[in-house]
Amino acid sequence: MSISPAPFVAAAREATDLVPVRISLAIIERFSEGLYSSPNKTFEELVSNSYDAGAEHVWVYMPSDLSAPHASILVIDDGESMDVQGLQDLWRIGKSRKREEGRQRKREPIGKFGIGKLATYVLAEELTYLVLKDGVYRAVTMDYQMVQGDMSEPHTLNLEVVELTQDEAKEALLSNLHDYGVRMKTVLEVLFPDDGAGPENWTAAVMTRLKKPAQGIQQGRLKWVLSSAIPLNPSFNLYYNGDSIEASKAQGEVIWRFTVGESEESLPPERRIGKAGSSKVDGGEVPAYTLPLAGKVWGQAQLFSDSLQKGNSEKLGRSHGFFVRVRNRLINLDDPTFNVGPELRHGTLTRFNMVINADDLDELVASPRESIRDSPEVRELKEYMLAVFNRARSMLSALDEKDRLPVLTQQGRISNPPPGLTQGPLRRMLRRAAQGDAAVRDSLGIKPDENALPGEVFDQDERHEVLEQILVEPSSEDGRLISYDPRRRAAVINQAHPFISNYIDNKGTQEALQLLGLTELLTQAYMLDESIDAVTVNRIMKRRDAFLRDLVSYHPRTAPVVAKNLREASNDEKLLEDAVADALSIMGYHVQRVGGGGTPDGIATVRLGRRNGGKSESYALTYDAKSSGSDARRMLDPDSKQPSGKTPRIQAGTARTSVLRVHRERAAGQFKLEIAPSYTLLVAPGFQGDGDEKALIGDICRNDGITPITVEDLARLVELFPLRRLSPLKLREMFYLHTPDAVRDFVNKIDEQEPPEAPPVTEVIDLLVQYSERRTPVTVDTIMTAVYERRGIDLDRDEVTAIVRGLAALAPVTMYFDGQLVALNATPQGLLGELTQTLGEYPHRMSDAYRSAVPVPRQRDGDEK
């Protein structure tokens, strides 16, 4: 099927070439409406295509009445453009030649997959490209309506390419621009100048027969999107209906400005080596400065309150640093420093923008006019630029110096804080959070639904303090160590964080922990100030947080050891609390140890995600442990003389299940839990009435939602957990049981099950070794795929998670698993050795399937045979 160019193109001409396109409606909709659900984002994609083509100017034309029958949208640029081969490459869906080795390009390309042109499907039924390449004008049209029928049915189309004269190409553009009046002159004068010295190449994408999404575009919003998508960079200029669009970064707060030829009095005397004057630019006079060797220069420098190195515009080019132009050509496209010297402080550089014109250096510009030879003239220019930069740096330091941290001086800790201890970096960090930077908000612990931040915290006036207090309050155990509360202007230390809770009760440590938390918060702000991206900062701080947690974590124990500790802790309530926490942890729960009056012993949470039509299966429970030691004897039968060999039993009336229920109901608010506990686990050596269906223990536990389990049954469950591929989802069934014997039956059924087939131990170890030297971590999904490909075993994600968690419970020292990522902490032989040793502690009846799956560790040289 052939498609002729749109009617506004000279239709009388015959096609000179064909562009074959093989595509289906499913591909178009997946890669257009799926990726570019917002019509505004489509324009951002088209602007990116122009950037990849090396364009210095892009013109967007949008009619005021998008619903008019003949309305059209145009995106025109002066980039490299396309010949016939280029047009054929353009319509090779899913493949792009932009990044091929050896291709000459002005910039590193953004595009990678060759699907950007499909974004136009969101806006129009018809897309025509008018191009000039190597002196030849061509036109080609894609009619999306020709791709019909079944979603997956592929269509082979032949797009006809026609060659045009210059007048025909100009007329084709005019037919779509005639409604813009004088506003169309800018682009036409550039593309078709009277002297014939127009650009060697250009491309116009013309969208016609507009769709409803295009007709609903809010042009004010579109202009804002486009302004945020372009850098503050003289090498890339964007126009909307003939008017220049200013980069949104240029609309940021400028805290200092330097005009070449006017502001030199602010420089040190030894740098005032030139003479102020003026220069004729675009028919007018501008201030200029004549250097002894480099000659006349003009331009300006600006220092912004926020970093310029952020947002989508960074994809198109930098906005910060030096921009040196010679005869209107930017000669340091990708080098923000212009090799000025090692003295540049990066935190200042990313907020600094200087455009300087030095036409007198034209003879020193090297081919292809994007570099400049070293010379005394160039070195002199660099010294001048460095002097301007240092002036900006001193201004920034002076502003930050005034913005002290009164919270420290008020406490009498620091009488004269050094310049590094200022609110400036924190204030800038908060401003980024208020502007919607999700990674910064996350690192501050600011909730997504907390839309508004007090505007005065961004005021540079030191009267408005960003940080007025440092508080210590409980949050969730898995929460960050420090967060920022914008309402109270407070740094909030998480008392429930394992590192904090481990030391907070020690005499004299609270103030030290507060200062540690403050340092944590300021470290993030300092890294952002040095232009480390927010995602990287977040990742670094999370690694540091994991290290702090590991410093106070319990030594990893195998499932048999945890079970043994449970049995041995029956006579000591504190040890039993810890043993129960270890038991729940090894079975996949995130455990928050609490203890103390008026609270449960702990809270266990498991995040299982959404299943069954979108319903979340995550849940939480509280737990309490009652031992048979002297501290717990009041909870036992009055007849403390237990028959020999009998386990002490908790009385039904003194188990205080109603109190445990209150602890559960209060826990969510008391400890700021995201998931409110739904169950309570009560662990004890034994229960009065165990085995009697009519016993009171069953009635009170049902009434208060308590699951009673004996220490022995919990120990058995821990032992079985890694060998029966149990998961917290399966264990949830147990929390609906409210008698000790019903819980015991649940454990017995698991014990009596046929052992599952041998786990894919070899595959797991091979993957861990294979990925150990790669950046990509091993995930449950990676293992699931490998097991299917290598063994043909089709396991779902829950089954694989249970297998991996079970292996980690058997070898916790040499294998790491956090519920998603898997890692090897030792050599493969070390892992096999730990697995073999742990399995040796099990009866063969329970562990034979696993023993057969674990390869025998190889002996090292020198070991006895």
Keywords for this structure?
seven-stranded mixed β-sheet; alpha+beta; 34% helix; 27 helices; disordered C terminus; 32 strands; 865 residues; single chain
Query: Level of helix content?
Result: 25-40%
Structure classification: alpha+beta
Q: Main beta sheet: strand number and arrangement? A: 10 strands, mixed
Q: State the helix count.
A: 27
Please state roughly what percent of the residues sit in beta strands, choosing from under 5%, 5-15%, 15-25%, 25-35%, 35-45% or over 45%: 15-25%
Task: Identify low-pLDDT runs.
Answer: 95-105, 107-115, 454-463, 630-645, 859-865
Count the strands?
A: 32
Between the first and last Cα atoms, what is the distance in angstroms?
Answer: 76 Å
Q: How would you sum up the global shape?
A: globular
Mean pLDDT metric: 79
The value of Rg in angstroms is: 35 Å
Short description:
By secondary structure, the chain is α+β, with helices and mostly antiparallel strands. The protein is 34% helix and 19% strand.
Question: What is the secondary structure topology, with strand pairs?
Answer:
Layout: E1 2-3, E2 17-24, H1 25-31, H2 39-52, E3 57-61, E4 72-77, H3 84-90, E5 124-133, E6 136-143, E7 154-164, H4 166-177, H5 185-191, E8 202-210, H6 212-215, H7 219-228, E9 237-240, E10 243-244, E11 254-259, E12 275-281, E13 284-291, E14 295-304, E15 321-326, E16 329-330, H8 346-349, E17 352-357, E18 365-366, E19 371-372, H9 376-402, H10 406-410, H11 424-434, H12 438-444, E20 469-473, E21 482-485, E22 490-494, H13 498-503, H14 510-529, H15 534-551, H16 559-568, H17 573-586, E23 590-593, E24 602-606, E25 610-611, E26 615-616, E27 619-625, H18 657-670, E28 679-684, H19 696-704, E29 706-710, H20 711-720, H21 728-731, H22 740-752, H23 761-771, E30 778-779, H24 780-791, H25 797-810, E31 815-817, E32 821-824, H26 828-839, H27 844-853
Parallel strand pairs: 1-7, 3-9, 15-17, 20-22, 27-28, 28-29
Antiparallel strand pairs: 2-7, 3-4, 4-8, 5-6, 5-8, 6-7, 9-10, 11-14, 12-13, 13-14, 14-17, 15-16, 18-19, 21-22, 23-24, 24-27, 25-26, 30-32, 31-32
